[in-house]
Amino acid sequence: MRRRALAMLVLALLLAAVPTAAQAKGASAASISGGGPGGLPGGPIDLQGDGEPGSGTDLANLAEAAGVFALLFEDGPGGELAAAPAGERGPRYTITWTFPNGAGGEDKVRQSVWPYAAGGPVTYMASGQKVLDGTTRGGWYRATDTLRRDLVALGLPDRQPLPTPTPAPATPAPAADPPAAAWPWVAVVVGLVLTGAAGGALLLRRRSTLSPGRAR
After folding, report:
1. Global pTM?
2. Burial class of residue 149 (count of CB atoms within 10 Å of its CB; 0-12, 13-18, 19+)
3. pLDDT of residue 216
């Protein structure tokens, strides 16, 4: 009886230590396609294996670089964007992630990826996609250049990121017009200057007229 109880205890501990498909958050496969008319020259790129975060596999590294865990669940690590980033993005690719679910089936989650976008790779995952026991959180994500390098290593074209546009220099503001209240003073000053100029001219004229008489 004691041996049976001990065996049941060991079995329970083993079952608790092995994560079930419903508990696992990592993908079991991924397929990369797209990139424009005709898609990839060699067809879709397929990955399989252990996609658990931190496992170090190509599948797990790609998921981490693409921000999958930030966009998949509400308790993701963050890094998502509030809206679509501005700037050129270049060709779009689609990564279809496969997640085993607790019902013995598989859930497919699609993510759009722009590896060569200006300012760094950009990804987008639509919200509401069925995955495991819930739905995707979704959103936009700005990745690092690690994502572009990983995708190139897996078979995407070896292209550099699109250039980031240089902001146009700021145009200097035009000089402000004098306030309306200053115009009467401007008129007074101009009138005084003109009056003084006219008086000076008249004085010079009188002097030139009187000078010959004094000489005689």
Report:
1. 0.66
2. middle
3. 42
